Amino acid sequence: MAVTGKVSAPLTPEQIAIVKSTAPALKAHGEEITSLFYKNMLGAHPKLHNVFNKTSQETGAQPRALAGAVFAYASYIDDLGQLSDAVARIAHKHVSLMIRADQYPIVGEHLIAAVAAVLGDAVTPAVAEAWTAAYQALADIFIGLEASIYAEQEKSAAGWNGWRKFKIAKKVPESSEITSFYLTPEDGKLPLPGFKPGQYVSVHMHVPELGCMQPRQYSLSDVPGQDCFRISVKRDAGKEGGVPGLISNRLHSDYNEGDVVEITHPAGTFSVESKTGSQSPIALISAGVGVTPMVSILNSTVAEGSTRPVSWVHGARSTEVQAFASHVRDVCERNPNVKATIFKNNVKDDEVKGVDYHFTGRMDLEKVDRKQGLFLDDPEANYYICGPPVFMRDIQQYLVKAGVSESRIHMEVFGVGDGE
């Protein structure tokens, strides 16, 4: 069967049973399937290199992420409500990358072919038909949700769809690794659309050595309602065997004030819903460049005049690489409802404990004040986490063990190379 791009009929009970029964095989061979899928699809449709992150392809991060998503879909095919948050997050990523409805049949064709090639005789005609129907049903969900997001962006005040040219109005170092770029519309048309604190934009540029465009997503790092968007980008040399930040390093080295980049409309599901008069506490927990969406949330909360308790918990390797340190101290001094707890791996002799840092070493939530730092006794408290994937998983596990429901834990999940 072919994936058509047309609205599909509901899956039959037999098809649902087949998809669920194949979930273990997909888990066992997921990365092999998705690696073959990307290789064949990009080989047949080289223009899609402009959409997919080359770094994530090379490291295997994107195939692993897709394998996990396919397995989750197969496991919950009869209870998709369990995946609603993940679906919304992925749909926003797709919109930020300008994924189009007519690209879904291409993906479906190569994904089903890769499943058949890897699983061989196990993919009977009935299995192939069930998986084709299942993919079509999922594609319908994404196409419909993404169409609504595109429409909402276009009809919003000052909103737009597509890639729009922005000029770098200011380039400001925030630390030895992180630099802020203040972006204003090249056409001069203001105001800019609003966004939810914590959301991001996509930036793309041509990479000559790859012969294609490459997109990356960066969190907006200040309040909405200004005449510019600010993104704060980490220079990434790829230390300790890591892959250098392809786009991030170019922004640092090759782009200066007056230069032009292209970005998409703000998107993303990682945000604090603004509730007038809400006093429910929020904990903003970050490490490294994960600080960027947190600054937007912090600044926006303060700008609204909110007196809700806010805990700022951040981990950095050293003062040299810690972005927004003095700004956060100033916010805490001016707003008694905001408390900060800073962990640093390396501390200088002249740094003052309780001012420049609170604890040495990696972040350990056992050391953070239970009431004012983590609000663990408050059932209304919400937790926002951003940083390396292992860091976020560790923080999530700690909070769950401490009795925090997963519905109150929110994580910004970027793929490798995204939000560099």
UniProtKB/TrEMBL annotation:
InterPro entries: FAD-bd_FR_type (IPR017927), FNR_nucleotide-bd (IPR039261), Globin (IPR000971), Globin-like_sf (IPR009050), Globin/Proto (IPR012292), OxRdtase_FAD/NAD-bd (IPR001433), Riboflavin_synthase-like_b-brl (IPR017938)
EC number: 1.14.12.17
Keywords: Detoxification, Heme, Iron, Metal-binding, NAD
Annotated Globin domain residues: 10-147
One Pfam family, short name: NAD_binding_1
Source domain of life: Eukaryota
Residue ranges annotated for the FAD-binding FR-type domain, each copy included: 161-273
Reactions catalysed, as given in the entry: 2 nitric oxide + NADPH + 2 O2 = 2 nitrate + NADP(+) + H(+); 2 nitric oxide + NADH + 2 O2 = 2 nitrate + NAD(+) + H(+)
Enzyme class: oxidoreductase
Family: In the C-terminal section; belongs to the flavoprotein pyridine nucleotide cytochrome reductase family.
Protein name in UniProt: nitric oxide dioxygenase
Species for this entry: Apiospora hydei
